């Protein structure tokens, strides 16, 4: 019908606004590399390129019993991790909600004493014998032996200025926390003081950023022994940490105030904070929906890459695109003869109570449902619109239009995600070196596996990823790979060398591994 043709055409037009083609991808990669270099030279740049004081990644043979805690937002997680030394581990964990009054306590001591208490409870429950024995000795004036001490990795997801592997000054609280007295203090020391007050056999050995945890977790568990290059998160936010040559981290080498770190590996893991890549929009795409999303956000002009890529924002981009169309009376979405009396009422009236009219009203998981529903008629998509978004009696054509726009937003996010991956692979020169048994020709009838199995292990560039978006958005990795093949210097041959694997438990096993490597230096 005329209506369905008009609808399809308009949906295509909006989808096309989210195109991020090969030329644009290549320009962005060049800009990312430029910003990487700039961030390594000096402080206060667009890409923060924060030295993490972690100087090596694990290879899967690490052994021992470690602890990790994670203060992220709502919950505090405590776990112990037994590394078996054969790329496997066992993890025991407990989780407790942070009482609201402690999030805004008068003194830091109140919060950190509570955290230490949780560590004590955990030890009593899961390592009772060990805890009892060390406590007794301590109380009778003895000392805890070095090999009885648990090294602990502390994942602390607030902005800190790291000045050592287990030293970091809190810059400011976020996510509803507000304890003025803690700002400017070393959060590791605050925790250690309360642990010591309880005589626990625990040393806060490392302050951990979640991307570094992801990198470490992947490097320990990944099938190869080459070491992982990059750990990346595509969840609520997006960020990545990678292995850089220490002599390129000029700002650290020249910093008089830098703390101690192990220089023997010649490497330093750098936390890029790539959510703020290209805040000045030299190369990022910028649709009217991006502009509106940013203008109405709590931090306009900041985290511009993240606002086009991560789970927190993609649903909102789709919402803004749909609302823009629904407000246009000439646009036929949700207005056909099946959709009730849409010809006589305005859509706004009919779906008045739908969350689609409110900021953040569409969750990014809806984009996954759209992309995953290839069924004729898109029943799943229509059911979700009905059940979760109060938009009922949607026609198959409407569903197709929504799917087209949602797909374009998801695809753009994945193609943007290829930018930092490619830039880091290129900047660290990982594609140079022996090509080994790598071949560019495909075996007849066999599609080469992701990070091809026929490559020599030392040619593979391993990347660990985590987050709901990369885990659950259908074909997110395929879209990344398509873009990687289009990038100068990577191409088909380079793309095949890149192995992308999910790395779970960055704040558990990853933090434990950082505590382990930290223990080697301390
Ligand atoms: P976090 O990054 O906070 O540790 P997650 O990795 O689970 O947690 O990411 C949560 C984000 O992922 C939210 O923004 C949410 O909207 C989005 N999300 C949740 N489920 C899905 C899904 N199935 N597909 C795509 N995005 C999802």
UniProtKB/TrEMBL annotation:
Keywords: ATP-binding, Glycolysis, Kinase, Nucleotide-binding, Transferase. GO terms for biological process: glucose metabolic process; glycolytic process; intracellular glucose homeostasis. Pathway: Carbohydrate degradation; glycolysis; D-glyceraldehyde 3-phosphate and glycerone phosphate from D-glucose: step 1/4. The keyword rRNA-binding does not apply. The keyword Cell membrane does not apply. Coiled coil: none annotated. GO terms for molecular function: ATP binding; D-glucose binding; fructokinase activity; glucokinase activity. Residues 230-517 form the Hexokinase C-terminal domain. Residues 11-220 form the Hexokinase N-terminal domain. Its EC number is 2.7.1.2. Signal peptide: none annotated. It is an enzyme of class 2 (transferase). GO terms for cellular component: cytosol; mitochondrion. Belongs to the hexokinase family. This is glucokinase. It comes from Trematosphaeria pertusa.
């Amino acid at each position: 019908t005329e209506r369905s043709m008009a609808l399809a055409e308009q949906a295509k037009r909006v989808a096309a606004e989210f195109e991020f083609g090969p030329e644009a991808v290549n320009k962005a990669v060049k800009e990312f590399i430029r910003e990487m270099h700039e961030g390594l030279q000096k402080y206060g740049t667009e890409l923060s390129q924060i030295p993490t004081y972690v100087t090596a990644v694990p290879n899967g043979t690490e052994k021992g019993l470690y602890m990790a805690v994670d203060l992220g937002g709502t919950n505090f997680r405590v776990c112990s991790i037994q590394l078996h030394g054969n790329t496997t581990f066992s993890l025991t964990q407990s989780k407790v909600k942070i009482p609201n009054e402690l999030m805004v306590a008068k003194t830091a001591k109140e919060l950190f004493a509570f955290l230490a208490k949780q560590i004590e409870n955990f030890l009593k429950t899961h390592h009772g014998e060990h805890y009892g024995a060390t406590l007794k000795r301590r109380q009778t004036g003895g000392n805890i032996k070095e090999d009885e001490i648990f090294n602990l990795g502390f994942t602390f997801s607030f902005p800190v200025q790291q000045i050592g592997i287990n030293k970091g000054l809190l810059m400011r609280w976020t996510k509803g926390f507000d304890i003025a007295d803690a700002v400017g203090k070393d959060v590791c020391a605050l925790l250690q003081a309360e642990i010591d007050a309880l005589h626990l056999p625990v040393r806060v050995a490392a302050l951990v950023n979640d991307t570094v945890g992801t990198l470490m977790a992947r490097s320990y568990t990944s099938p190869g022994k080459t070491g992982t290059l990059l750990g990346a998160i595509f969840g609520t936010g997006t960020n990545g940490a990678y292995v850089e040559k220490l002599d390129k981290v000029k700002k650290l080498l020249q910093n008089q105030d830098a703390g101690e770190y192990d220089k023997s590996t010649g490497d330093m893991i750098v936390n890029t904070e790539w959510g703020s890549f290209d805040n000045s929009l030299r190369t990022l795409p910028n649709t009217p929906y991006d502009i509106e999303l940013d203008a109405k956000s709590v931090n306009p002009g900041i985290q511009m890459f993240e606002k086009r890529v991560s789970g927190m924002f993609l649903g909102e981009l789709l919402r803004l695109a749909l609302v823009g169309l629904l407000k246009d009376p000439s646009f036929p979405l949700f207005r056909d003869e099946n959709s009730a009396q849409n010809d006589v009422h305005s859509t706004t009236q009919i779906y008045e109570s739908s969350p689609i009219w409110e900021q953040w009203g569409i969750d990014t998981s809806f984009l996954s449902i759209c992309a995953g529903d290839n069924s004729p008629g898109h029943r799943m998509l229509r059911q979700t619109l009905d059940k979760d978004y109060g938009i009922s009696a949607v026609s198959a054509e409407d569903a197709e239009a929504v799917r087209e726009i949602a797909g374009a937003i998801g695809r753009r996010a994945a193609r943007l995600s290829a930018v930092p991956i490619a830039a880091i692979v290129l900047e660290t020169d990982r594609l140079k070196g022996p090509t080994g048994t790598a071949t560019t020709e495909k075996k007849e009838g066999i599609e080469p596996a992701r990070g091809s199995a026929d490559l020599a292990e030392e040619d593979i560039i391993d990347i660990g990823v985590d987050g709901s978006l990369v885990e659950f958005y259908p074909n997110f990795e395929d879209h990344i790979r398509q873009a990687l093949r289009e990038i100068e210097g990577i191409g088909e041959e380079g793309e095949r060398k890149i192995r992308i694997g999910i790395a779970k438990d960055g704040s558990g096993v990853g933090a434990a591994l950082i505590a382990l490597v930290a223990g080697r230096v301390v």
